[in-house]
Amino acid sequence: MQFFFDPIVWLLILAVLVSGGLLAWPTLTQARSGGVAPAEVVRLINRERASVIDVSEPGEYAAGHIVGSRNIPIGRLEVAPELPKNKTLPVVLVCATGRRAAKAAKALEAKGYAKPVVLSGGLAAWKTANLPVETAAA
């Protein structure tokens, strides 16, 4: 019983709980946000023929975007004729941080798209993963 009264034991238990929580935090926040990691986006593009739509403003898009993505600002998303015609294929939505893309995913779901997916962390996460980015004239 002396084991439970030793302060070192309680400090070690606390350290284990805190480190476990810190390790689980990214998984928990990603599940709550509904986003997917950059590696999963690459898999969706390569294996499931996903389209990539960047919902950033044209100036942001010109400064840097995922190679092969289309720019449809979130304000034009409802009426954009350049949205993919096949609503059963995944559509990956991207913006600088992922917040506008989450709103865009809800809008596409309302339009009947079966698999709108948000890049968790946005273009910043894509760049952090050292994946290709291109720039274009605005």
What does this entry look like structurally?
The protein has 138 residues and is of the alpha/beta class. The chain is 46% helix and 16% strand. The strands form two sheets. A five-stranded parallel sheet has the order 1-6-5-2-4. It has a two-stranded antiparallel sheet with strand order 3-7. The longest helix is centred in the N-terminal third of the chain and has 27 residues, at 7-33. It is elongated and about 70 Å long.
Topology:
Layout (H helix, E strand, L loop, with lengths): L6 H27 L1 E2 L1 H11 L2 E4 L3 H6 L1 E2 L3 E2 L18 E5 L4 H12 L4 E5 L2 H7 L4 E2 L4
Parallel strand pairs: 1-6, 2-4, 2-5, 5-6
Antiparallel strand pairs: 3-7
Entry summary:
The chain contains five helices and seven strands, in the order αβαβαβββαβαβ.
Pick out its properties.
single chain, 138 residues, alpha/beta, 5-stranded parallel beta sheet, two-stranded antiparallel sheet, 5 helices, 7 strands, 16% strand
Spans of at least 5 consecutive residues whose pLDDT stays below 50 are: none
Tell me, rounded to a whole number, the average pLDDT: 88
Tell me, what's the shape? elongated
Helical content (DSSP H or I, runs of 4+):
40-55%
Radius of gyration: 20 Å
Q: Strand content of the residues, in percent?
A: 15-25%
Sketch the topology as an H/E string, one letter per element. HEHEHEEEHEHE
Main β-sheet description? 5 strands, parallel
Which structural class do the helices and strands define? alpha/beta
Instruction: Please state how the strands of the largest beta sheet are arranged side by side.
Output: 1-6-5-2-4
The tally of beta strands, per DSSP, is 7
Helix run count: 5
**Euclidean distance between termini CA atoms:** 71 Å
